[in-house]
Amino acid sequence: MRLLFAGLAVFVIATCVLQLEQDRAGLTIAPLDGTGSTPATLYLRDGGGAAPVVVVAHGFAGSRQLMESYALTLAQAGYVVASFDFKGHGRNPVPMSGDVNSIDGTTRLLMEETARVARAALDHPRADGRLAYLGHSMASDVVIRQALESPPADAVVAVSMFSQAVSPTEPRNLLAIAGAWETRLAQEALRTLRLTDPDAALGQTTGDPAAGTGRRAVVAPHVEHVGVLYSATAQREARDWLDAAFMRATDSPVPQRGGWIAFLLVATVALGWPLARSLPQSTPPKAVMGRRAFWAAVILPALATPLVLAPFELSFLPVLVADYLAVHLGVYGLLTLGFCWRSGLVRGQFPARAFWIAGAVALFGIALFGGVLDRYVASFVPHAGRVPVIAGLALGAVPFMLGDALLCEGGRAALWRVLAARIAFLASLALAVALDFEGLFFLVIIMPVIVLFFLLFGTMGGWVGRRTRLPAAAGIGLGLVLAWSLGVSFPMFQAV
């Protein structure tokens, strides 16, 4: 049964990888030179002629990989496509800086970086001198503002847009795309469309794209802020809009990557089950935490940690709110471990084999699952500057996940206990944000990463804990995976 399941998982993984790689067929994908320290990738259709340049920019906490569906769609349509990592994101070794609350601060620096990539792409022999921008979320404002400056852009595609720089006439040929489940941004897209025609409706084009006066706002069905990046509707609208602006006609295929990526991630997680079943078993622990002790171990750390840390300003890591999160995780984990120790859950959890099992869990999560993420979803391989960040986060993440694994008995606890433990931690982070909204607001953006971690890696940790009867092994391994995941997700920031 175990081998059959493993074979099925490997078959699904291979099928998904082959399909996703097929989307790159006929393209030359290589580093773009001339961008300074900014990592950038150039996408060119083999055998194509001169064509307009499209610069693709990701949103906050994103990377080039997250925007690849658009890059592939436009490159297959014959455009010269350049995608890059903003400062502080992905593989970019230079941290973000400047005043995030000022247009002339961080936004100006990101605009300059976008312009540098555009100039490098325009210098390519295949570029015909015309330029368009496509930006998501944070980058929508950046590319709209940069489109008004040098080098000027002939068209802009703003995905999940918010920008105060849009006027009835600028930028030229603006397409606003929003996901149907991001209601406020869909309303913002409609608002910008109605600057030119108060009676315009979603899905309607105003002005003349050939003359540079085109405006259009569309909603991609059944998707939200991230799903809109994989929407076939959104990709097709972007391609057709640029074709109209540059008076081109293409009917190239639109990659259907979202579903294949989802199947690939699920199959990779599923592969963890037969691998976990191959681990050695141990004698089940005898200690069980009583209900009153359990609720104390859940509630007290969740309340005490943000209250204890509230008076302190923590700034020792060059990443937004990562230093606070590292300490929050560590304090929370140590308090939880104290309750687990009193209940006898720690006894017998650290034989020698627990540490190589923890290493195997970390290797699976970082190398195998992380490799899939890095190739098809988002940057997961850190540059040298992120190594100290990952190490700092590990000092907090390992005690936290160790305490969580013991509290949840390595996946053997009742489901309500597991849910209570995870919800209490998220509530603790929410309380921390409420106590210092301005300083810790970016924790709100990181919370979905933690929820996804609990769903995926928590499931795998449960398989390991139930098989080995060593929750500590799973906890230590997953703590390292959590530290790595957060360390490559947080944008690096240098205060000035």
Automatic annotation (TrEMBL):
It comes from the Bacteria. The chain crosses the membrane at residues 260-280, 292-312, 324-342, 354-373, 385-407, 414-434, 440-458, 470-493. Gene3D superfamilies: alpha/beta hydrolase. Keywords: Membrane, Transmembrane, Transmembrane helix. Residues 53-185 form the Serine aminopeptidase S33 domain. This is Serine aminopeptidase S33 domain-containing protein. It comes from Roseinatronobacter ekhonensis.
